[in-house]
Each structure stands twice: as C-alpha cells, then as structure tokens.
Write a structure and sequence with these properties.
By secondary structure, the chain is of the alpha/beta class. The chain has 3 domains: 31-285, Glycerol uptake facilitator protein (Up-down Bundle), CATH 1.20.1080; 323-354 and 361-433 and 668-715, Rossmann fold; 470-595 and 644-653, HUPs (Rossmann fold), CATH 3.40.50.620. 48% of the residues lie in helices and 10% in strands. It has 27 helices and 12 strands. A 12-stranded mixed beta sheet has the order 8-7-6-9-10-5-4-1-2-3-12-11, sandwiched between helices. The longest helix is centred in the middle third of the chain and has 30 residues, at 252-281.
Length: 719
C-alpha cells in the first residue's frame, strides 16, 4: 500500500467503521480484535449513555435486573434438589439470569463497577454522579430481588425438597467469616467486571454469551458471592422461615450487616480495583484522543470532580461532542425550533435580525415534528419521508433569513419526544441562543407528557428566548427591569433591534410608592447607561403594582421583552405555574428571556437563590462569555463588557409568562407542510442521523447550499 493511499483508507475507516459517538466498531490492526485503547473507548461511549439516563429509567432497569437474578436463585435451588446437590450439575443453569441481564441491557450493580468508574477516572463524570448512578441501580436491584424472594416464598414456586435446598443455599453465607466473605465477593466482583470488559472486546454475540455463561458459572463453582443474589437469599429466608429481625444467629440484621454488606464491599472493590484500575492503567495516554472524544479538552476541575454540580459541572458529555464540533467554527448562531414552516416565519425573521448584527451570524432552523406513538422510526423510512417534505417546506424560511444577510442552516427532527429532543439538539450543537415560539402546539404539549421538565431545563445550554407572537412588530419596545442577568439579555436584544431596525426602546421600573420615585429614576438611568441604552425613554411607575405598571406602559408598544426570575422560565411555562397575567393583558408581542447563570462554589454549597446551571457540556465557550452569550455585536461587547443582571419589573413577578396558540405540524402526513410525502430517495436526505429508535434527525445541507447560492446570485443581480 502506498503512502498516498493510506490517508484515504484511514478516512474511510473513520467514516464507516466508527459509531456515531466516535467509538470504534472494528479493530485497528485486526478487524475482529480491539486494542485495549479501543475497548476503553467503547466502554466510555456506553458509560456516557448510562450516566445520563433519568432516575426512572435507571431504577426500573435495575429492578428488571433484580427480577432476573431471582431466576438464577430459582434454578440453582431447583437443580440442587433435582441432582441431589451435585457440585457441577446443580449449577449448570445458574448463569441464566445474568444472561437475561446482559442480553436485555438491564442495569446490574456489579456491572457498573466498570463503565461509570472509567468515566469518573477520566474526570468526565463527578464522584456524586457516580454515587447517584450506583445508588439508583443498587436500589432497583434490591427491590427486584425482594419482589422475587416474596414470590418464591408465597407463590408456591418452590415445593418439596426444593424449599429445603433453597434454605440450605440461603444460609450458606451466614457461616462465613467477614474476611473470607469479603475476598470471595471481591473475586466475584473481578469476574463480573471482567465480563463487562471482555464483552466490549467481543465483536459477536455468540462469543459474548459464551464468556458470560462460563464466567458466571465460576461464581457457584468457586463458592463465591454476588451481592444481589445474596440479598435475595436473605429476603427469602425472612419471608419463608420468618427469621427474626435481630437478636439471633440467623436474623435479618445479621443477614444484611454480616452477609450482604461485606459482599457489597467485596464486589465493589473487586470490580473497581482488580479490573477497572488495572485495565485503565494498561491503556495509553492517547486512549480517547483518536476516538474524537472532544470532552477530553473539557475535563472537570478537581472541585467539580469531587463536589459535582455543587462546584459547577457534574458531567462532561462525550457522545454528542462530535456533532457540536461541526458547528464549532461558526460564528454567532441562533437555533430556531419551529413546528410549522408555513406559520413560523416571524420567529425566523426575528432570529435573523438578531444574528444580522454579527458579521458571521448564523440562523439554524430546526423543524421539530412530534411523531405519532404508532410510528416506528427505527428503520428511518418514515423519518426520511417527513424530512424530505420538511426540507422543501422550509424554502421560504431560508429566503426570509437570507434577506438579512446571514447564513442559514436547516434540520428536521422527528421524534416521539420532541420537546426533549429539542433540548438534546441544543446541547449537541451548542448554539449561542435558542429562539422559539410559545403556544399550545405539539412541541409544548409534548413537553408536558415527557420526562420531568426540571431534568431538561435545570441546565440550560445557552440563552433562551421565548416569543409570544402577536402580529410581530419590533418598532416600539418596552423592557420592564429591576436588574439581573435576564433583563441584561433583554437589553442586549433591544439594542440589536434598535441598531438593525431603528426600534424605539422604553425602559420601565416599578417602585412601591411616590417617595421611591427619585431612587427609581436614578436606578433606571444607571441601568440604561450600563447597558448602552442611553437613547431609551425612561419610565418610573410609582403605583407599586408591577403588572398594572407594565400594562399601562405597554399600551402603545409593539413588543414587550421580559426577563425570567430566579425560579426559571421554561419549567414554569411548561408546568403552567407562572402567575403573571400581564402577558395575556397586553396587545403587543411578548419576548421572554432566560439566561444560564453561574455561581461560585460557596454559593452552590450554601445557596443564594439563583439557578444552578451547567454551562460547559458540548463545545467549550470563551470563558468571558460563560455567564451567558451576548447577542450584541463584537464591537458592542468589547465596548461594554461586564456583569449583567435579572429582570421583570419586580421580584414578585415570578418570570415572564405567555400563552398563545400556535400552528403545529402533523407527523402523520409528513408533517402538515405539504400535500403529500414524496417517496424517499435512495440516498435519503443529507446527513441523516437515525441515532435513536424514537428519533430521526436530518440536516439539509444540500438544500441550504442551493438556497445560499440562489440568494448570492440575486444579490449580485441587484448590484
């Protein structure tokens, strides 16, 4: 092979033989064998998915694993009775429950002594994140084992000599002293964690299952102990024989403290020390670099690694970093999630106006389609048909944004979890801001049906702007403020609109009574000067009622921009827990703003009433902009750098609210944006990413480039 051929071959391998996360799909030297670095990469990729799972998913996956362990105990007892306690025949089906767990992808505590620990060793996950993961999985395992033990005891599953065999097996751990019990459990932990490592080194299911069977067969043959099996055995004795809670040689207390806990410690140390640490140190220093794991440049600091979210970040994403790097070279970028390309033009136009203040502004339009429950997206065919129609339907939006001389990119996301996937897209691509409409369309309806909103909104990846559009007109803008980072964001938006469209800006500050007017005027004048709004009209309302004051001031205004309060805007919008009726009372459009906030370690540990937001996953930002992104031009930012601060008339205003009906896309007919869905091309849309069974993502690069060329040609013709 010549040197000239080698780079092409290597590039092809990068494209074809690596998964979407960047972890290898085949070996470097020999296709069916991985190097230790490549095995480690595969483990890191799997761990990334596991530690980001929600508590509910982790718990019930652990519960399923605990129930599967019950099968192991049942078969062990049954064969012991049937074979008259033959040392080999009685354990032949012992591994079956573990095979269920491996094939089913369930979460077993002892398996988790490797993947999440590897992520923690790389300072990509914090110790609190690791302990959270372990605690939830172990709780699920124990609950599943307890349910299984209850069924075996009272369900009549065991009869005759099988009951005696189950009792004999369950009592075995009570007679073993702490030290040998610990080391027997450590050997079992080594075996289980070793199975995980070997499993990731395997390339076919047959060899993987053979390893699983032989490895778990070694546990009963070696008279070793597994913590979930041991817990199930203790609970079986408690339910079957009614052993006392404490005060006897065989009691629930001695079973937990003298049997289960030593086994738990042994399994944990055996897996972590004997397998994870040993295998970690046999890998090279470049173990993650060649996998394109960009998170390596954003490792947690030592305080973050120890304290987690209390010190800043608790986790650095890996799987989505490669997608974020595709956008890393772009300039100021606004992501615009839409539900109907035919009616969401004003939102896109506003985004283009904001982006146009930057020389390298980009508007990323994301058509989010809520897929019906019955629609399967695993094959990509249904998503591809919808994406084809979506790409065509966004033609007018491309033209709208291009009129403001900004770059335009478009994507389509088809998902059963549309609101959550919108957040995932923002975290993957790391825009500077997200601008979206507020209403009763499918996107917001889906938000109320998906996972708890706090899990999505507690860590905003960027600035969020929510538009309640009412015949959008940005010529006369009102900003109620009492100071804060979110009202600072409102001021930045207003400055851009004033510069690009000549908008007139009015600032409003509400005070309690006329005696506070002078203080209010001084505050408002200083705030206007600090945020570069010297030409703005200053209005101080001394009525003491924030909502009435906004309504009076907004009577002749076309756009009201209101910042969120400390408790967060998005979660309160979704949960309908906002209590500011002024949004419904004014005739103007309303733009709600929320900015990620950062706090010191002391503030995070002891509290300061501010939001806790992780700003770092995805592409690393300029540290000077870590408090949120600046929608102003670079010149303005350099001329007016400094701290900014939060909004909405007065602290009682609980955030800004809006409730407006919006048009939505219908996923059944390829999203309501065309009369029918064309047949899918053989090649499919550009850069399609069917990365989840319930999500289909397509980036329309070819259509975007064609539209950009047409726009350039029109501008050249005009000149």
């Amino acid at each position: 092979m010549t040197d000239s051929q080698q780079p092409d071959d290597d590039s092809m391998r990068e494209v074809v033989e690596r998964s979407r996360s960047g972890a290898p799909a085949v070996g470097e030297a020999v296709r069916d064998r991985f190097s230790s670095d490549e095995v480690f990469q595969r483990i890191i990729a799997a761990a990334d998915e596991e530690v980001t799972s929600g508590s509910r998913e982790l718990f019930f996956s652990g519960l399923a694993a605990g129930l599967a362990i019950t099968i192991t105990f049942m078969l062990y007892a049954s064969l012991t009775a049937a074979t008259d306690s033959h040392p080999i025949l009685s354990v032949l089906l012992y591994p079956l429950g573990f095979i269920y767990i491996i094939i089913g992808g369930y979460q077993l505590y002892t398996e988790n002594t490797l993947p999440p620990v590897a992520l923690t060793l790389e300072r990509l996950a914090s110790l609190p994140t690791l302990l959270r993961h372990w605690s939830i999985v172990l709780a699920g395992n124990f609950v599943g084992g307890a349910i299984g033990a209850l069924v075996l005891s009272y369900g009549g599953v065991f009869t005759g000599e099988t009951v005696s065999a189950a009792r004999y097996i369950s009592q075995g751990g009570f007679t073993v002293d702490f030290v040998p019990l610990f080391f027997k459990a450590a050997m079992a932990g080594l075996i289980v964690a070793g199975v995980v490592w070997v499993g990731f080194a395997s390339t076919d299911s047959v060899s993987r299952m053979l390893v699983v069977y032989l490895a778990f067969l070694a546990i009963p043959l070696g008279d070793l102990f597994h913590v979930v099996v041991s817990f199930t055995e203790v609970l079986f004795l408690f339910f079957e024989d009614g052993i006392p809670l404490y005060g006897a040689e065989i009691s629930l207390y001695t079973g937990i403290v003298g049997f289960v806990i030593p086994v738990l410690l042994g399994n944990t140390i055996g897996g972590v020390v004997l397998v994870t640490l040993v295998n970690y140190f046999q890998t090279s220093e470049e173990r993650l670099e060649e996998a394109r794991f960009e998170g390596m440049s954003r490792r947690l600091t030592v305080p973050e690694w120890v304290f987690g979210r209390a010190a800043g970040r608790s986790y650095v994403p890996i799987l989505d970093a490669t997608e974020a790097t595709l956008f890393a070279g772009e300039g100021y970028r606004i992501m615009v999630p839409i539900t109907n390309p035919r009616t969401d033009g004003p939102i896109v136009e506003l985004a283009a106006r904001l982006a146009s203040s930057h020389e390298d502004g980009v508007v990323h339009i994301v058509h989010v389609v809520q897929a019906p429950e019955r629609m399967s997206l695993s094959s990509g065919d249904a998503g591809r048909r919808i994406a084809d129609v979506s790409a065509e339907g966004m033609g007018n939006l491309r033209s709208t944004a291009a009129d403001y001389d900004v770059d335009v990119s478009t994507s389509t996301v088809v998902s059963h979890r549309s609101f959550e996937e919108m957040f995932n897209m923002a975290r993957r691509t790391r825009p500077d801001a997200v601008l979206m409409g507020w209403g009763d369309d499918q996107l917001w309806s889906a938000a109320r049906a998906e996972r708890p909103i706090d899990e999505l909104t507690n860590q905003l990846p960027c600035d969020f702007l929510i538009l309640n559009e009412h015949e959008l007109d940005t010529s006369r803008i009102l900003i109620p403020t009492s100071g804060g980072p979110d009202s600072a964001l409102s001021a930045e938006v207003a400055r851009v609109l004033a510069e690009t469209t000549g908008a007139e800006v009015t600032l409003l500050h509400v005070v309690d009574d006329p005696s506070d007017r002078a203080r209010g005027e001084a505050f408002l004048a200083g705030w206007a000067d600090e945020h570069g709004l010297d030409d703005a009209e200053l209005v101080v309302d001394d009525g003491g009622d924030v909502e009435d004051g906004i309504c009076r001031a907004a009577a002749d205004k076309t756009l009201v921009i209101i910042g969120a309060t400390e408790k967060g805007l998005l979660s309160r919008l979704v949960s309908n827990s906002l209590h500011l009726d002024v949004i419904h009372d004014v005739d103007a459009s309303v733009l709600l703003t929320e900015r990620p906030s950062s706090r010191s370690l002391r503030e995070r540990l002891f509290g300061s009433g501010r939001r806790a937001t992780d700003l770092s996953p995805g592409v690393e930002r300029d540290p000077e902009r870590s408090a949120g992104t600046d929608v102003r031009s670079i010149e303005d930012h350099e001329a007016d750098a400094g701290d900014h601060a939060d909004a909405t008339g007065n602290g009682e205003a609980d955030g800004a609210l809006a409730d407006v009906g919006g048009a939505s896309a219908d996923a059944d007919g390829a999203s309501a944006d065309a009369d029918g869905a064309p047949a899918a091309d053989d090649d499919g849309p550009e850069d399609e990413q069917p990365h989840l069974d319930d999500t289909f993502v397509a980036d329309h690069d070819a259509a975007d480039e064609e539209a950009a060329e047409e726009a350039d040609a029109e501008r050249d013709g005009d000149r």
